Amino acid sequence: MKSLINFLFFTIIVLFISCENETVVEPILEITTEDLSLLQQPFTPIAENRTVKITTNQSVIKVSSTDSWCKATILDDKENGKTLRITVLPNDGFTTRTAKVSVYSIYQQEISIEITQWSNEPSMEISAEHVDIIDGELSFSLTISSNYDFSISLPDWINNEGDNTTIIGTKTYNFTVSAIPPGERTGEIEFIAIGEDIVDLKQTVSIKQIQNELKPILTDFSPVTAEKFDLVKLSGENFGNSLESITVFFNDKEAIVKSVSDNEIIVEVPQSPGEICEISVLIGDNSLLYETKFNYRKSWSLSTLTGNGNSTFKAGTLAEGQIKARYLAIDDNNNIFANHRDSGNDQLYIVKINEEENSIVSLTDGPLPRNELLPNAPTVGPNNVVYIANDMFAGESYYTLDPKNNWELEPHVITYADSKPISSTYTYRIIHHTDGYLYYFAGNSLGQIYRINTETNEGEVFYEWGAHPYGYAYIFDPNDSNTLYCHVNSAGIGYGPWSLDISNTSNRFVRLNSAGSNSAATSLTLNDGDLTTAGFGRAWQMEFGKDGCLYVSDASNHVIRKINLETKIVETIIGIPGVKGAKDGKKGEATLNEPRGLVWNKDGTALYISDFGNSRIRKYEYN
User: Fold this and answer.
1) I need a labelling partner for 515 at 20 to 30 A (CA). Which of 41, 119, 406, 540 fits?
2) In CATH, which of 3.30.420.10, 3.55.40.20, 1.20.1110.10, 2.60.40.10 is domain 29-117?
3) Highest-confidence range of 364-368, 583-587, 592-596, by mean pLDDT?
4) CATH number for the domain whose boundaries are 124-211
């Protein structure tokens, strides 16, 4: 009896546990949203079928259609499971027709699908008749169903975004609009039928763009350390995408804004804004400041000081100025002096440029009379008196401009007791030496150099090359007043720097790049590095920097060269060899066009360059 009771108890427990573990299976009958959208796209007038997958756990699925031209079938195989096929017959009528397809099971509510088939009549359906673009939301989409080929015509402020190639059928087309300052504008997108049998058929969608008052937000910027001409990306929100409405400052220096989008501004780092900078952004009436500080990294770069490419002289501010200068000189007050000679217009001026005063002026009342004074290279002597070489009358005169006399031009006649320059002499360079003499460098068949006592204006032939060396660039070594350098531009004699000990002229000039080519170097034969083998092109002026190095305007190669006389190393510091151009920027980017005159400012932080071929004065400086 006890055993029977235990058996019954155990049986009840097992049945109870079995009932607890039994789960109820919910019926499933689904077609994905994407597949439903595919079926609901209009069918073309021809016979066509489409098949989509059915997700279900029901063994029996039924389907029906309200119209005989639209047939619905359930297909079932082991590999693909259950699928729904919709087949439409050709529509030979002239009206679009619709049918309803229902998919259902005994346990599941039906899925209702509306099927549309176009007629032979042209038909297009567009997802919207009007679109509003509000406050920086610059993209939108239109879904278009068409049974004819068409083109899309856009206003100039609306652009295709991605693949908007038109198709017969249904497709989503994506567009973007350009940004505007606060305000609004309207336009239309036209969808125009293509085909000989379809005439004057088009549909339009009206577009309204509304930009309310901007509420910009700053987030961050990168890089946080950069140098002049580098690009910095400013990030944030609601910038408005209008270049005209945005101003950016690094401290008090305005930056060039290169591009703007609604959440990004690209700016070019301005010159010398300070080592630690606050970046401020002005957008309309909104003034914002980045919390993070920007670090300005100093570097050498080239910029345009004055001139715009026009060779006709014009005085005014540096931005207004026009000049075509051959040589340059500078006084203790950083006044830059230049001889403007545009032979095409026969314009002759002696020009003073002052960067601090933002001015470029002529020191003569007008163009100089060519038959009296053909101004060539200026030089600055004691008391900031400017001496002007006169490229006329075979070395018989020179001119001075004294700041005490308000830069009035004064002629000086040179007398010669014994030897004098031979006839057919032109003079291109004049230097005031510490010995109190002017050294006048002439171009004639003997290659004469003569010197003048500035107290008596008595002159004498000081040196003869023996042949015309075509050496336009002469300079004395500021640390060794007995050493004179000349850059020779003569094939056969040897392009490049030569030196002379003026205390013993019987030793003659010595060529420094003795193994260099005797012909003008090209971009392929400049040979930076060892001075002995370096190649040089035609140069017009040489100047010493504060670093003791000799700088050369290699005009024919459109570059500036640096000669370290201690290490005997040559380096191209700015310009791209063999490439003409007027681009500002850093080494490897900036370009020149036949640079001629060179002069350093007094603290050695800026080299002024007469960019002759570009009719500009350029400034190479450490920012």
Assistant:
1) 540
2) 2.60.40.10
3) 592-596
4) 2.60.40.10
pLDDT tens figures, 167-177 = 988 899 999 99
Residue in this structure with the two tokens 């079995």, named with its chain if needed: 18
Residue 511, pLDDT score:
96
Cβ neighbors of 122 (< 8 A, separation 6 or more) are 147, 148, 193, 198, 201
Q: Is 488 exposed, middle or buried (0-12, 13-18, 19+ CB in 10 A)?
A: buried
Model pTM? 0.63
Query: Does pLDDT of 344 surpass 70?
Result: no
Q: How far apart are CA 51 and CA 74, in angstroms?
A: 10
Cα–Cα distance for residue pair 495/534, rounded to 1 Å: 10
Overall average pLDDT of the 589-601 stretch? 97
The fold for domain 217-298 equals Immunoglobulin-like (2.60.40)
Is residue 14 very low, low, confident or very high in pLDDT (cuts 50, 70, 90)?
A: very low
What CA–CA distances, in Å, run from 83 to 33, 56, 76, 128? Answer: 15, 10, 6, 33
Q: Mention the CATH class of domain 301-622.
A: mainly beta
488 pairs with which residues across the strands? 496
Distance between CA atoms of residues 209 and 207, nearest Å: 7
DSSP-derived letter for residue 7 is: H
Question: What does the pLDDT read at residue 323?
Answer: 95
List the beta strands (DSSP E) in 31-160: 48-53, 55-56, 62-65, 70-77, 81-88, 97-104, 111-117, 124-126, 130-134, 139-146, 150-153, 158-160
Domain residue ranges in the chain = 29-117, 124-211, 217-298, 301-622
- Among candidates 485, 470, 394, which has minimal Cα distance to 431? 485
124-211 and 301-622 in the same fold: no
